[in-house]
Every structure is written in structure tokens, then in C-alpha cells.
Design goal:
It is built from 13 helices and four strands. The protein has one domain. β2 and β3 form a beta hairpin. The protein is of the alpha+beta class. 27% of the residues are buried.
């Protein structure tokens, strides 16, 4: 009964991540205009080209820092609980063993029958509960800005009604979905959670790509096209002030329009999402080893302060207004 809630949160997070990022040739940093930079980032995200995305979305020095920080990021994770490690390994084994598709469907079929018999008519209530729980979680998340919370709420309110009409008990769709999950797990070549955390930056990006492309195929089975949302994006610059710009991003989710915004900064002739860049720099500062007390190191270029964001015009559509205070 938790499936609608989990799906709501997952979709909302994915769309929030995708539409708060940053056109130029793939693999080159930044972009020639705010709109081009944003559009190219979204294209790379849509196609699961995550390593190229980071090369595009960060200045060269910051991208190099991100790669160098990757082993430290993994090392900073809390040790994996032995019980969780055992469950992870068992799950991977079930998904990748021979005839996994047949075995998993045989296990799931009674649940599908029971769902159609006992819970199908309760989907409006279940979707409503999931929607309420997701909205509460969004409001209580202290790491989200006001603008991000607004977009998440809109996404949840669009996805919730959709879950009521999805044929979750359809056995043919379930069999197709299981095949996609198994195929994705095999392509990801997972083994243990420790091995997952020990991956290099390049290995991690390849695994993310495999998982993302598998997720899109899975959602397509049930009628939700992520590519359609990406392809519907329109980007408009609301304000540009020297080294910074405020853009409005509009896209459709299940044919319903949703808007978000982003602030970009101009560095060395190219545009970058300021929130994304600042998060990478903050994470580097957190992971970087302390400098020796006797030395006074020069400030690296990747840690240079970002230009101030533009002040939005009063009443401008998509301007952050009070939302900017929540950043």
C-alpha cells in the first residue's frame, strides 16, 4: 500500500533535480547564454549522460575538484550495517540470478491478484494519503528552498491523481516492469553496497545512467513519460544583470504545466547554475582536509565567491521574491 506514496516522492525529486540545472557542445563547460546553458544541461540529464552533465555544468576547476573529492565523499559515509549489507546482497542476487524474471513474477502474482480484489477500489483514498504524506515531508524538509518546495508541491499534486488511474494490478504490465528492473540490475553489475560506495567517479556516473534509463523505461510502462516532460521544456530569461541572470523554466508533467526558476552566474564567458555550483563548493569545503596551521594557503579558484544574484523586478513573472529569502 506504500507504492503510490513512494512513487510520488520519487517522481517529485527526479523532476526537481532535472529542472533546476543548466547549449553548447556536450562535454564543454557552461554555455553561451543562460537559456543555452540550461537547455543543454537538461538534454544531458534526459539522456543519462551524467559525466558529461557535470563537465558542462561546472567550471573546469570545480569539475576537477568534484572528481578528486569523490573518494573522500564515499569514505565519509557511515559504515554499512551488516544486516543492511546482507539484505542488499540478497536483493541483488534475486534480481540477477538466472530466470529472475519468472521467479519474481511468480512471487508477485498473488499480490497483484489481491490488489485487484481488495485494494483497487481504495486507490483514491490511498493516493490521497500518499499525497498528504508527501506534501508534509516537503514542508518539513529544511534543506529545500521555498522555490523548490513550491515546485515539488505542484509535481505531487499532478502525480497524485494519475496514480488513481494506473492499472497497478495489471499482470502483463507487471511482467514487463519486472523484466526492465532485472535488465537494469544486470547492466548495473551491482554486487555489494560497499562495492557501490567504492566506485570511482566514472563508475558511479555509469551506474547512475543505467539506473536512470531503467527508471524511465519502467515509468513508460505505466504511462508516465519523463522524456516527454524534458522535451516540453521552455526557458525564458526574466532578468539579466551583468554577471548573473534569472531564468524561468516551464515544463509539462502529465500534460499539466509546472514552473520553476534558476539563477545563473557568468564565469569566464560561460553560464552556470549558481545553486548547483555553490553546493559543489560547499561539499568540497566540508570534505577538504584542514590546512596546516603554520601555512596560509591561497584561495583556490574553485572556491572563489560567486557573483551576487540579480534583484528581480517587482511583479516579474517567475521572479523569486520571497522565495529568494529561503535560499
Amino acid at each position: 500500500m506504500r507504492r503510490p506514496h513512494a512513487l510520488l516522492v520519487l517522481l517529485a525529486i527526479l523532476l526537481l533535480t532535472a529542472c533546476n540545472r543548466q547549449k553548447e557542445a556536450p562535454g564543454t563547460p557552461g554555455g553561451g547564454s543562460p537559456e543555452d546553458a540550461t537547455r543543454e544541461s537538461l538534454t544531458l540529464l534526459r539522456d543519462g549522460k551524467f559525466e558529461l552533465f557535470w563537465k558542462h555544468a561546472l567550471p573546469p576547476a570545480d569539475f576537477a575538484t568534484l572528481r578528486a573529492d569523490w573518494p573522500r565523499r564515499n569514505a565519509a559515509r557511515a559504515p554499512v550495517n551488516p544486516d543492511d549489507e546482507a539484505k542488499f546482497e540478497a536483493g541483488v542476487k534475486r534480481l540477477t540470478e538466472p530466470d529472475a524474471e519468472k521467479k519474481l513474477f511468480a512471487e508477485l502474482r498473488p499480490t497483484l491478484v489481491r490488489f485487484d480484489r481488495d485494494y483497487k477500489d481504495q486507490m483514491p483514498l490511498m493516493a490521497g494519503i500518499g499525497q498528504s504524506m508527501a506534501l508534509t515531508a516537503i514542508e518539513q524538509d529544511k534543506d529545500l528552498t521555498l522555490s523548490q518546495k513550491r515546485q515539488l508541491r505542484e509535481a505531487v499534486n499532478v502525480v497524485a491523481p494519475w496514480t488513481q488511474g494506473v492499472p497497478w494490478g495489471d499482470q502483463a504490465k507487471a511482467k514487463e516492469a519486472i523484466g526492465i528492473v532485472v535488465d537494469t540490475a544486470r547492466k548495473a553489475k551491482l554486487s555489494t553496497s560497499e562495492a557501490l560506495h567504492a566506485m570511482t567517479f566514472e563508475q558511479s556516473m555509469a551506474t547512475w545512467s543505467t539506473a536512470w534509463l531503467g527508471l524511465k523505461r519502467l515509468l513508460d510502462v505505466y504511462g508516465l513519460s519523463i522524456d516527454k516532460s524534458f522535451d516540453s521544456v521552455s526557458i525564458d530569461t526574466i532578468e539579466s544583470n551583468g554577471g548573473s541572470a534569472h531564468v524561468k523554466i516551464t515544463y509539462t508533467l502529465l500534460d499539466k504545466p509546472i514552473q520553476t526558476d534558476a539563477t545563473l552566474v557568468l564565469l569566464d564567458g560561460r553560464w552556470y547554475d549558481s545553486d548547483l555550483l555553490q553546493r559543489v563548493r560547499d561539499e568540497h569545503a566540508r570534505l577538504a582536509p584542514p590546512a596546516p596551521a603554520a601555512s596560509v594557503p591561497a584561495v583556490p579558484s574553485s572556491a572563489a565567491p560567486l557573483p551576487a544574484a540579480p534583484s528581480p523586478r517587482a511583479g516579474a513573472p517567475g521572479a523569486p521574491g520571497a522565495d529568494a529569502k529561503g535560499r
